[in-house]
From TrEMBL:
Protein's organism: Dactylosporangium roseum
Gene3D superfamilies: Adenylosuccinate Synthetase, subunit A, domain 1, Adenylosuccinate Synthetase, subunit A, domain 2, Adenylosuccinate Synthetase, subunit A, domain 3
Similarity annotation: Belongs to the adenylosuccinate synthetase family.
UniProt binding sites for Mg(2+): 13, 40
Listed transmembrane segments: none
Protein name, entry field: Adenylosuccinate synthetase
Residues at the catalytic site: 13, 41, 140
PROSITE patterns tied to this protein: ADENYLOSUCCIN_SYN_1, ADENYLOSUCCIN_SYN_2
Length: 428
């Protein structure tokens, strides 16, 4: 019963879409299990076409794999339908998509509240994607959420919306001085989505159980990342779900015993979008260099990504937390042409060295990286496919990451394309 979990091991945008697509041809199901359209997963197919996927699992570009949106995802139906249509226009058939009836819906009041709360937070804002993610998960936990299955019952949809808007409209109007949201208009809008989404709605967990029982391979595609996890990340500067490997079981409805491999994706350096602590962040020319060469602009919001050196403390934490069996280090090509490549091996916090995540967020805010300077390389490595084809110093850098993270590096990314990888160990 092989299930594989693929997670981001940093702060997002590690290249999860690329790696999912890379192995998507060899699996039977690709499942999104958490987050929503705050995610932006880029896939570049061998014919050079670039796709930015937000809700659609990155297995969509292969004709064989079934694609599943699990119960742990929050679904903005308008965005999903636009994505389905956009893919169809480009000749990608996603009629095999399955959506869990238990997934929660992003509603107009979620988007409105996400934006207005951020504005009121001012300099304390999270820097969310503004897609309504936090408020949607908030309603879910408060047991006021509206689920995909509610689209199939107009009476229930209206009733639930009336209940939640009775309270949320007061907040929008009285606290934030915003217009109240009209129940009738929302019901009407969402019933048009219901008509189109109906064929895709199913009991996805039963589908996955059957697949696993038949010995099929299920790939659980994480969105966001370990350090954005609500419980294990840099709270409160996190997303509102559990992107870590444990979240895959909950968000897809499969048992932990089904998982036999956990792929952790990291960049060869670090990026972060939005607010929050980031010990290895660079504010100098090196940071600008990484942003420019790595094209570090958000897939979802177009925002500049913050950039910094590789943080092995984070890598080690992510390895232990997720049980990573295979690391993928993407974008090694971006580091070509540097005299030396600093690697953060530990932190200094209030004069003391620590090799692990500190206990408190305050300490993490005060963490100063302790760097090991590794010699760089000048060669263009984008054509390398075997580890031995990488310059000796690039090999050393990868091996050092492996040592520090405490797990093997199975794939090294040397370009955005599906085949632009050095494969050391197969992921399937
Ligand atoms: P995700 O959210 O984890 O799927 O990552 P994003 O798609 O948001 O950001 C990763 C970016 O890096 C995308 O533009 C990818 O096309 C690109 N990318 C992925 N792997 C590589 C690599 O090995 N080299 C280079 N140069 N770009 C890569
Ligand atoms: P992928 O899947 C990078 C960040 C936001 C913000 C915080 C909370 O492409 O790696 P939210 O809208 O989720 O409430 O925002 O999380 N964030 C991401 N950063 N990649 C993502 O997804 C992200 N999804 C959310 O920038 O700091
Ligand atoms: Mg992304």
């Amino acid at each position: 019963m092989p299930a594989i979990v693929l997670i981001g091991a940093q702060w997002g945008d590690e290249g999860k879409g690329k790696v999912t697509d890379m192995i998507g041809g060899g699996v039977d199901y690709v499942v999104r299990y958490s987050g929503g359209n705050n995610a932006g997963h880029t896939v570049v197919t061998p014919d050079g076409q670039k796709f930015a996927l937000h809700l659609m699992p990155s297995g969509a570009l292969w004709p064989n794999a079934a694609i599943v949106i699990g119960n742990g995802v929050v679904v903005d139906p308008k965005v999903l339908l636009a994505e389905i249509d956009g893919l169809a226009e480009r000749g990608v058939d996603v009629s095999r998509l399955m959506i869990s009836g238990d997934a929660h819906l992003i509603m107009p009041h979620h988007r409105a509240l996400d934006r207005v709360v951020e504005r009121y937070l001012g300099s304390s804002r999270i820097g969310t994607t503004g897609r309504g993610i936090g408020p949607a998960y908030g309603d879910k936990v408060a047991r006021m959420g509206i689920r995909v299955q509610d689209l199939l019952d107009p009476g229930i949809l209206r009733k639930k919306l009336e209940i939640v808007l009775r309270e949320r409209n007061q907040v929008l109007f009285k606290v934030y001085n915003r217009k109240e949201i009209d129940v009738d208009a929302v019901v009407e809008e969402y019933l048009t989505y219901a008509e189109r989404l109906r064929p895709y709605i199913t009991d996805t967990r039963a589908v996955l159980w059957k697949g696993l029982e038949e010995g099929r391979t299920v790939l659980l595609e994480g969105a966001q990342a370990t350090m954005l996890d609500m419980d294990h990340g840099t709270y409160p500067f996190v997303t509102s779900s559990n992107p870590t490997a444990g979240g895959a079981c909950v968000g897809a409805g499969i048992p932990p015993t089904a998982i036999n491999r956990v792929i952790g994706v990291t960049k060869a350096y670090t990026t972060r979008v939005g607010s929050g602590p980031f010990p290895t962040e660079l504010f100098d020319d090196n940071g600008v260099h990484l942003r420019k060469v790595g094209r570090e602009y958000g897939t979802t919001t177009g925002r500049e990504r913050r950039t910094g050196w590789y943080d092995a403390v984070v890598a080690r934490y992510a390895t232990r937390l997720n049980g990573i069996t295979d690391l993928v280090v993407t974008k090694l090509d971006v580091l070509s042409g540097l005299e030396t490549v600093p690697l953060c091996v530990a932190y200094e916090i209030d004069g003391k060295r620590t090799d692990d995540m500190p206990l408190t967020q305050t300490e993490f805010h005060h963490a100063t990286p302790i760097y090991e300077e590794l010699p760089g390389w000048w060669e263009d490595i984008s054509g390398a496919r075997e580890f031995s084809e990488l310059p000796a110093n690039a090999q050393r850098y990868v091996e050092r990451i492996e040592e520090l993270a405490g797990t093997r590096v199975s794939i090294v990314g040397v370009g955005p394309g599906r085949d632009e990888n050095v494969v050391r160990h197969s992921l399937l």
